[in-house]
Amino acid sequence: MSAPLLEAEEVSVTFDVPRAGAWPWTPPDRLQAVKAASITLEPGKTLGLVGESGSGKSTLARAIVGTVPVSSGRVLWRGQDWAAASPRQRRAHGRHVQMVFQDPLAALNPRMNVGQVVAEPLVTHFPEMPRSEVRKKVGAMMERVGLLPSLVNRYPHEFSGGQCQRIGIARALITEPDLVICDEPVSALDVSVQAQVVNLLQSLQRDMGLALMFIAHDVSVVRHISHRIAVMYLGRIVETAEASELVENPCHPYTRALIASVPIPSPKAERARHRPVLQGELPSPLAPPSGCIFRTRCPIARDTCAQAVPEFNDIGGQHYVACPYLPGSS
Amino acid sequence: MIATKSVADELAAAAPIKGRSLWADARARFFRNKAAVAGLIALVCVMLFALIGPFISPWNNEDIDWNVLGNVAEAGRPSLETGHWFGTDALGRDLFARTVQGTQISLMVGIVGALISVIVGTLYGAVAGYFGGRIDAIMMRTVDVLMSIPYMFVLILLLVVFGRSMLMLFIGIGLVSWLDMARIARGQTLSLRSKEYVEAAIATGVRPFTIILRHIVPNLLGVVIVYATLLVPSMIIYESFISFLGLGVQEPLTSWGALINAGAAEMNKSTLWMLAWPLFFFVITLFGFFFVGDGLRDALDPKDR
Q1: Between 3.20.20.60, 1.10.3720.10, 2.20.25.90, 3.30.300.30, what CATH number should domain B45-304 receive?
Q2: Considering the entire predicted model, what is its pTM?
Q3: ipTM
């Protein structure tokens, strides 16, 4: 096991939500978007992050990138805490960590042409680089992500969603970062284009030795690309394991429900399958349930679940679960 | 994208394809709008009138035609023979030269006021909206306080205390014109700040002021330009009102407001041309700006139609 590239230690992100109609001096409600999340990422590997909408996946990613302030905990980059770094250091750090966004068109400034969009990180971090070299690098990167370099003068609205996502990937990779955080990069795309983009990311990862953090709510896509998967629910990581281990041997009841919700591309098998469908809605993160946060929707919840927050147990083979009642144990 | 390799190579070797920017799209939409183009032509004509008028006028705006004096209603009427194409004013000064000169002043007041508001207001609002929080609160409360001061009172006070001069007029107009713009720019910035491309720039490590100039301001410009074109006529009206009160530019300089005031005073002496000419240019220009503003709004914001 090599030294980790990125470690998040007990990272919490809390937002202040002003109460409607309250006095300016009344204390605001506190929304715990991410609570004590710890993840580790090794160079060249992919960490998948799954969970339903509102589970804090994107907030965790933004806390790692630094666009959202970390309330407590540490984000270690090659052993150095940079949640505490100065704004200047953090900006310089942007060279090593880049981000790919969910909505491919919204992530591109509509007033800039593609060449300017892709060149922006390069111009920011290497201001003394001659323009001819910038142009050459942009062309090479466009070609690498499967776009014609002659399209540099076009504007984002002239491209399809999949092409825009490729432009976003080209922008993220132009500074040759060590880590790219993909925030649901394929959720807004057609299934056929999803496969293209995922395969592109995989081949880029192989060629450039990138580490990826891949966020999605679709377990099958995450499984395809990830080495490790972490499952989030209401701001907390409830289970993490190697990708194949997690999918084949899910231990947390939430993970099991998530995996059961993946459709099987065969009508017969799909009909024959027993699916434990989750009841109810995600509880409000303003007032999370006591004890185990999943207990309000858990099919195997019992009285003790309301009392204590379950420990994060290693059940062997780097498989961690935040639930004491494993399948087969009761 | 899915083209075969040889075709792809051929295309890659070809010259870069020219893209159609949103600005180019907007320009095409603007020129399809007939009312807006008519307004633009009218404005260009008025500006040409102001620019080349002094060179073709046979009279100076200060000189009094002594032949006309005392018999303005008869000898001072518009005629090609005397060279007073627009007639003369009550003192026998050539109205063509004076209208040209008034047009220059009025357009200058309108354009300078709009420019101040575009530059100061946009940057101020973008900074307040982008940084948000306490900076935003302090900056916008300052705007609120400035707005609550009756600006006409301030301007009159300025002109009375420091004397009537063009500079004071510009300062007075500049002081108030950017406030509305700052609010509009700030409101737009609040919604732009949450866009993903701004977040991408932050995550990349672009400096905040570069983000404001590169990502926020260009996307604000559509709204700002529309508001600015509608602000020019209101600045002109504003200055005309000041001049109408007799506090604007000083004789022998004049402006549309002052000319209209003078013409209105002579209305019952059957010298209607004194009122009609400046009023004609005033109205044409206001309509022109309003039509151009409407056309720009439709052209720059296709979603709103």
Answers
A1: 1.10.3720.10
A2: 0.80
A3: 0.84
